[in-house]
């Protein structure tokens, strides 16, 4: 597939296809919202909802959020906004606003790991355990001294098995199912209406987003990372607002 030629929307910032041909697949934390001290304390900037709604209309509904968070959290922060949501780095998928989250047959995290994770975070102030469908996150943003002990504990739990993997996140260590990544979600969404036949534009900020970038580019689209392609998440959101305003 050939790379599409950019349109006039690229006047400030990286190139994008014209909105009537584009599909947007966007990361949440560090991209649509700034990184905050805790997962619950992120702030949706005034104007972002209007920007996303305008964009969704102008690109025929082809707007998806592809996040590491559970889908329910995107519903909380961006209620009714995206057409589709892929959660937990591509493990979970809801293909349409009124559709159901697709059932996932995945191994749950062993109870022993969950119990040890609870005990571990209780030993380090200002740390947190986040539970997911088939994973967990040990957050140490509030106490960086926990980084090494958290990693060591996870490595011990994971040794001798290949169902789960450790992944670095921003001031957090995550356990995920092996083989799950955002690239799968991009491919799945781009195969269905209203995304199919459009040019994917994926934007993210973290290691987990590199699979989304690769998948979008492999489909003949665009993949951008903050801070490589946009200096900050704020710059990215300004670019996004510009796309909507000039259509
Ligand atoms: O794929 P994303 O939408 O970027 O989600 C990645 C992870 O984001 C969240 O954690 C990160 O953001 C928090 C809020 O800014 C921050 O406090 C934390 O230190 C970061 O690691 C979320 O909690 C995770 O579940 C996501 O996987």
UniProtKB/TrEMBL annotation:
Q: Catalyses which reaction?
A: alpha,alpha-trehalose 6-phosphate + H2O = alpha,alpha-trehalose + phosphate
* Pathway(s) the chain acts in: Glycan biosynthesis; trehalose biosynthesis
Q: Give the enzyme's EC designation.
A: 3.1.3.12
Superkingdom as given in the UniProt entry: Bacteria
UniProt KW Magnesium keyword: yes
InterPro entries, sorted: HAD-like_sf, HAD-SF_hydro_IIB, HAD_sf, OTSB-like, Trehalose_PPase
One Pfam family, short name please?
A: Trehalose_PPase
Name the cofactor(s) required for activity, per the record: Mg(2+)
Report the enzyme's class at the first EC level.
hydrolase
Q: According to its UniProt entry, what is the function of this protein?
A: Removes the phosphate from trehalose 6-phosphate to produce free trehalose.
Q: What is this protein called?
A: Trehalose 6-phosphate phosphatase
Q: Which organism is it from?
A: Asaia siamensis
Q: Which gene encodes it?
A: otsB
């Amino acid at each position: 597939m050939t790379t599409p030629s950019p349109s006039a929307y690229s006047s400030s910032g990286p190139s994008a296809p014209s909105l009537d041909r584009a599909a947007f697949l966007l990361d949440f934390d560090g991209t649509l919202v700034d990184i905050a001290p805790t997962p619950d304390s992120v702030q949706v900037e005034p104007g972002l909802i209007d920007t996303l709604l305008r964009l969704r209309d102008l690109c025929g509904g082809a707007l998806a959020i592809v996040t590491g968070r559970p889908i329910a959290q995107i519903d909380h922060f961006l209620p009714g906004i995206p057409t589709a949501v892929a959660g937990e780095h591509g493990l979970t998928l809801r293909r349409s606003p009124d559709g159901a989250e697709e059932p996932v047959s995945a191994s749950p995290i062993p109870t022993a790991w969950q119990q040890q994770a609870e005990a571990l975070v209780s030993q380090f102030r200002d740390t947190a355990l986040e539970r997911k469908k088939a994973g967990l996150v040990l957050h140490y943003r509030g106490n960086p001294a926990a980084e090494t002990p958290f990693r060591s504990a996870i490595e011990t739990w994971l040794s001798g098995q290949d169902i789960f993997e450790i992944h670095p996140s921003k001031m957090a260590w995550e356990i995920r199912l092996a083989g799950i990544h955002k690239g799968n979600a991009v491919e799945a969404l781009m195969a269905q209406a209203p995304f199919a036949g459009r040019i994917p534009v994926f934007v993210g900020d973290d290691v987990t987003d590199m699979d989304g970038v690769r998948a979008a580019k492999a489909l003949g689209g665009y993949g951008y990372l903050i801070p490589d392609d946009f200096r900050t998440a704020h710059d990215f959101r300004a670019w996004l607002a510009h796309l909507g305003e000039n259509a």
